[in-house]
What does this fold into?
Amino acid sequence: METLINGAIPWAFGFPKFNPSNKHRVKPRTVRCLRKNDEVNGLFEAPSQMDLEGHAHMKMSQSPESDPDTKHNEIWQLFREAQRNILYLNKQRLMAVEELKKAKTEKEMLLDRIQKLEEENQADAGKDKLSILWDLLLRIDSMVLKGMIDTGEASDFRRLVMNSNAIVADVFFDIMQRKDVELLAELRHFSDKNKRNGFHIVHICTEMVPVVSVGSLASYVTGLSHALQRQGNLVEVILPKYASLDLDEVQGLREIEAEFYSYFNGQLQGNRIWTGVVYGIGVTFIQPVHYSTFFTRERLYGYPDDFERFSYFSRASLDYIVKSGKQPDVLHIHNWETAIVGPLFWDVFVKQGLGGTRIMLTCHDFGSQCLEQPDKLALCGLDSSRLHRSDRLQDNTKGHLANILKGGVVYSNKVVIMSSMHSKASIIHSLSHGLESTFTIHKDKLLIAPYGFDKFTWDPSRDKFLPENYTADNMKGKAVCKVALQQHLGLTEHASVILVGCIFSEVSDVDLENLKEVVLIASRRNVQFVFTRLSKVPSKNTSLDSFLEEIKDENVRFIDKCDEALSHLIFAGSDIILCPSFHDPMLQVPLKAMRYGAAPIAITSIGKRFRHVVDHDFQSTKLSQFLNTTFAYMSLNEALDEIKSNSMQWNQKIMDAMTKDFSWDAECYDMHISAYTALKNL
It folds into this structure.
């Protein structure tokens, strides 16, 4: 019992021990138990000494012989009552502990819920306005496909969103999770319908950074779309739903729960439609149901049935645009893969509510044109007997075949050829791969545009990867970046030493023999070199290994695995960047070099000068004109000489290049807006 009492409460009750031989009067103690409210337990109260004496006297007078037994019984009665009270208190304590645990658990759950809500709020707040707008626009598409609104009302809603985008983003921010019926009611309530000024452009293409990328098309679509939307235009993209898509980069990916059919091979084919937002750009993914293997393959291109795959996608894209009630100003198609949209549009779709839409084709590469048997055109609903003619799709060399890229040129209202260094004349006469006669006939609708780069990611004045930022007006930070790069590479740390970087994607892009000669001669002048391949995965290459062994030097470093942070530091820390080519649509190395205050110099043999096909044609790009008057004709040795002998002139040249804007937002944007404007006026 002592163990129970002592273990149950932090104190012990003292009770008089009964001893029959004890002649002295036992003084009983008052026993009180306090409840939780500090009141005395009403179950019992130990008698006072006077009471006990009186009680004992009465008992003794009544039955003197029973006095010891009576006292013993009373004491044990008191003890049992105390025990009951202790057990009661112990029970109350256990209940209080349970209540405390429960309260603690509820508090933890509440804190977790608050944290999740804060994270959700932060995620919502992190969404830029373009993402919210595109969530809304894609919901409008879904409403059309479900039959909730007609195409006319959908068109009005889209104009409303385009015209009042800032207000719309704020108004609809908190209600995007509502059901379509509720959202539609809010849209109808939001009735301010001003006339829009920007263009509505729909890209029908096969690549887009960062979800799927193989060549220069991917960065071009994303870069140009960003630039256009920053200036108030509405741009959306339609892609095949490849199995290899990087869906982590897609915000709000959802499948539209509506049936959608497109024509192919003589009948209607079912498709699943997915929508989402990529970098603030609305994207629609088309997934064939019956022809499900078309876009579930390891590679994007290079299969015998590529024409079938991409003609299916092109036809499905047009069917989707019509069914969703879109009426874009421009359908922007790319390379041969979606060039078939041109003849499809004018022969099948123009009278299906698209009378105000025009077609623009962009060509990135004439090496692949897709030559097919003419009868295959019927797969997507075209009449080969009408199209297989010399002035339409018939190939200029192999007359028995249809040339799909040629058909895109013929049936497009404008054709933009992407080339940073070549003029229209040189492309038509030297680089057209058999399309010279076609380009000559249609030369008035040909435009040349340069590639660009993301000036917000690549900006030394606010680059988060640099130890110190800098501008053309204050170049102090560039010296800091050079020393940081030298330290990282284990090179002699001194800002006055000339550091040359060389960045490439594949070894096959580089003329290693020319590069070896350049490096061996320049290294005698105490020049430092850093070579890097922009890849996250190291690779083995015999020719590269041999090259590195031959140029082995304490001033030369090679990095076979370069991350984003290091690539930024190489641009910032280098005085010169060696370029495999000035026409660099993939990496845009020359453009980034100039932005970071490094001179782009072509890899060429000593004693030879780099020459482009230059016509001094007024139709060449501003980029090519600038490069041709600054760095294009300069070898590495000549650049080193000028740095040493005429540093003031060199520094001025570098600062001039830094202040030029060759991003997607500059000349590339201007050329496309000019083309869109011309299309609208047709």
The CA atoms of residues 363 and 610 lie 26 Å apart.
